[in-house]
Amino acid sequence: MRNRILLVVAVGISLLLVGCEVRKTDEDTYNVTVPTEKAKEAARQMNERAKEANDQMKEAARETAPVVREKAREAAKAAGEAIENAGKEMKEHAKPGNQP
Asked: What is 5-66 written as a DSSP string?
């Protein structure tokens, strides 16, 4: 998804640059003119694509959230069981004088 967002941004910047006119006015100076209608259209297209990418990311998050929750529960349960087993193991192998 991250690459998709970067692609949308890159396309948007490219669209903005296509609508620009660059003229060299001096040795180290350039004049950049952006036609208003072209810039507005490029910005509109970029906004639409960014919204589409955002919607796709939200959908992907909705789809993966239940799986992530279930895996987290499984991991927590396994960790709890491991701690419980370790406690039992310690009690079994503790010296008689060291037990509470």
From this structure: HHHHHHHHHHHHHHT-EEEE-SSS-EEEE--HHHHHHHHHHHHHHHHHHHHHHHHHHHHHHH
Nearest to 53 by CA among 9, 14, 17: 9
Q: Rounded to 10 degrees, what is the CA torsion of 65, 70, 71, 74?
A: 160
pTM of the shown model = 0.44
C-beta separation of 46 from 19 below 8 A: no
CB 22 within 8 A of CB 34: no
CB atoms inside a 10 Å sphere around CB 41:
14
Distance (Å, whole) CA 48 – CA 18: 18
Tens of pLDDT, residues 59-99:
988 999 999 999 999 999 999 999 999 888 888 877 666 55
